[in-house]
Write a structure and sequence with these properties.
- With 390 residues, the chain is of the alpha+beta class.
- 34% of the residues lie in helices and 19% in strands.
- Helix 8 packs antiparallel against helix 11.
- The longest helix has 24 residues.
- Strand 7 and strand 8 form a beta hairpin.
- The strands form 6 sheets. The chain has a 5-stranded antiparallel beta sheet with strand order 8-7-9-15-10. The chain has a 4-stranded antiparallel beta sheet with strand order 1-2-6-3, with helices on one face.
- The structure holds flavin mononucleotide (FMN).
- Flavin mononucleotide binds next to helix 11.
Length: 390
């Protein structure tokens, strides 16, 4: 069973991720992990922090001589900003005068709900863990899941569909247009269409000028997925449910859509369901002329590309803050402001790739099993042969 956890605060010494259940013998490329972490840090509209930090994955256990050994993998990501925070956020008691309190909760952030829940008089410790800095740790272990999937011929990437009111007009972006987006050495807004990307940039500029923030939609695509991952047999084993939960668990994602899920609700069945043919595909002879289902029917992958969209709300830390209340005096004040991103849609897409990869890797390991890569691949090839001969 694939399991993972993360630990660490936004301005603490480091983030740590723990990943257990990866078979022995998977080749780990350090450069790939670091490139994934770099991709998460990019995008037009990120805050100043991204300029001072360049994440690297320091693997502490579970990998030796460049391959996994079947034992739990732990990864450490240093917070380069820690040197500026060790006095105000020490592990020991420290000097209370140096504490950086967050005195008025930001509407839309975890500040108020978290302070009430954990019984703190202000929100510093709340935002430290609620912050999406945590998603860097998920990207580190997600990269390992991607390497595993790659051995099975499965790739997971994302692209940006919309930022604010700037949106792709042709929303069916084929795989061969998504691959180059992920290979760019400079990341603007990860849109496959350059003209729309400029319009997206204008949306971010508008938000930057007015002290506001802007959200949007990303799409994660899993390519090469065989039919048969996930099952309808139990509610909590359905692939659509697992993916929705995984992507929704990312900070600021407020809706998840699989295939054309939202439009399907107001369309006739004849325009929604993907007609079946027999023209030969990678895994079986069966084919579809469309993929409105986003590659999942009955909670099972059906052999088409898996397409999952995440809808991101605008960032809640605003340079022109909204109305709030002072935690101590209960007087009306403006919400707290701390250096912040203005648009994070491409970065959220990268974090969502990690969540999709971890979910697919979990389902693949549950279906094909194996304590070593040799065993996993043997089982996988046997299944591929079975569905080819079906
Ligand atoms: C990649 C990424 C970066 C983010 N950066 C910020 C940020 O700089 N400032 C901020 O207020 N929120 C940021 N957020 C969103 C908050 O983490 C999120 O809104 C907050 O934790 C509350 O959770 P919720 O929006 O899921 O309710 C970011 C989200 C993501 C995915």
């Amino acid at each position: 069973m694939l399991r993972y956890y993360t630990a660490g605060e936004s301005h603490g010494e480091a983030l740590v991720a723990f990943l257990s259940g990866i078979p022995a013998g998977l080749k780990i490329e350090q450069a790939f992990l670091d490139r994934e972490l770099w991709r998460r840090q990019q995008g037009y509209g990120r805050g100043g922090r991204m300029k001072i930090e360049r994440d690297t994955a320091h693997i502490l256990s579970g990998v030796h001589h460049g391959v996994t050994i079947g034992s739990p993998i732990s990864v450490l990501l240093e917070n380069k900003d820690w040197k500026n925070w060790q006095d105000s956020l020490p592990v020991g008691e420290g000097d209370p005068a140096k504490h950086k309190a967050v005195k008025s909760p930001r509407p839309g952030h975890a500040d108020l709900a978290g302070a009430l829940k954990y019984n703190f008089p202000e929100a510093r410790y709340i935002l430290e863990r609620a912050s999406a800095r945590e998603s860097a740790a998920r990207v580190a272990v997600g990269a390992i899941a991607k390497l595993l999937l790659c051995e099975l011929g499965i790739q997971v990437l994302s692209h940006v569909v919309s930022v604010g009111s700037a949106s792709l007009t042709d929303v069916d972006v084929p795989w061969d247009k998504i691959v180059p987006v992920s290979q760019r050495d400079e990341i603007l807004l990860s849109c496959a269409d350059p003209e729309t990307e400029q319009k997206m940039k204008e949306e971010v500029d508008k938000a930057l000028r007015s002290g506001d923030s802007v959200g949007g939609i990303f799409e994660v695509v899993a390519h090469g997925v065989p039919p048969g991952l996930g099952t309808y047999a139990q509610w909590d084993e359905r692939l659509d449910g697992l993916l929705a939960g995984a992507v929704m668990s990312l900070q600021a994602v407020k809706a998840v859509e699989i295939g054309i899920g939202v439009a399907a609700a107001s369309s006739p069945g004849s325009a929604v369901h993907d007609e079946i043919g027999y023209e030969g595909r990678a895994h079986t002879g069966f084919s579809r002329r469309s993929n409105h289902a986003g590659g999942i029917e009955g909670g099972i992958s059906n052999g088409e590309e898996i397409r999952v969209r995440g809808y991101l709300k605008p960032i809640s830390t605003l340079r022109r803050p909204l109305q709030s209340v002072d935690f101590a005096t209960r007087e009306p004040v403006k919400a707290a402001y701390e250096r912040s991103d203005v648009c994070v849609v491409p970065a959220a897409g990268v974090a969502a790739e990690a969540m999709v990869a971890l979910t697919l890797a979990r389902c693949a390991l549950e279906k094909f099993g194996g304590d070593s890569m040799g065993e996993l691949l043997r089982n996988y090839q046997g299944y591929c042969q079975q569905i080819k001969n079906f």
